[in-house]
Amino acid sequence: MIIRPADKKTDATRIGAVLSRAFHDDPVVRWLLPSGEGRERMFVTLARHVHALGDLAIDGEQLVGAALWDPPGYRQPPLETLRSLPGFLMAMGGRVTYGQLLQTEFHRRRPRVPHWYLAEIGTDPAAQGRGAGSAMLAGRLAHCDSEGTAAYLESSKESNVPFYEKHGFRVTEEIRLPKAGPTVWAMIREPVS
């Protein structure tokens, strides 16, 4: 398994495809896009315009996983916000307001301490259980430890909470999303010295 940084321009389409497959049964994605249509375009837009960095898990020649991260203090540049709008509108249509609610809810609950934000991480279902998720986490978490910075995420599946706990995260809050949305688990990982 090789982990390499993603190139936002050249890898976004592949990231969208692998995350779409990885999140096929995700409660938050199903709440955002009940029909499943637009899922891949949404993830492409997130990879290309919203999040600062990505990591790819490659097994042989095949992309099997992707993670999207924001460094401490990161704010999406205004130009990228404008560039993301067509992609979100095409992906979500009238449900784009649900995406705005989600972002607002998550942003207001983020920790006040400097932290790396793990926005998305997923492994193609055909490759799950082979260590891609752990491998993608390992490099960024080692970086967090070396700079003494926390890592933070929201787990949209309760069944994934133990996976993150294995990597040092702990649940800080259960978030019930508005408009009859699902529960999400906010998790933080303090740096290991």
TrEMBL record:
Residues of the N-acetyltransferase domain: 1-190
Lineage: Bacteria, Bacillati, Actinomycetota, Actinomycetes, Streptosporangiales
Class in the EC hierarchy, top level: transferase
Acyltransferase among keywords: yes
Name of a matching Pfam family: Acetyltransf_1
Enzyme Commission number(s): 2.3.1.-
Organism: Nonomuraea roseola
GO molecular function, one term: acyltransferase activity
Protein name (Swiss-Prot/TrEMBL): GNAT family N-acetyltransferase
InterPro entries: Acyl_CoA_acyltransferase (IPR016181), GNAT_dom (IPR000182), Trichothecene_AcTrans (IPR052523)
Gene3D superfamilies: 3.40.630.30
Keywords tagged on the record: Acyltransferase, Transferase
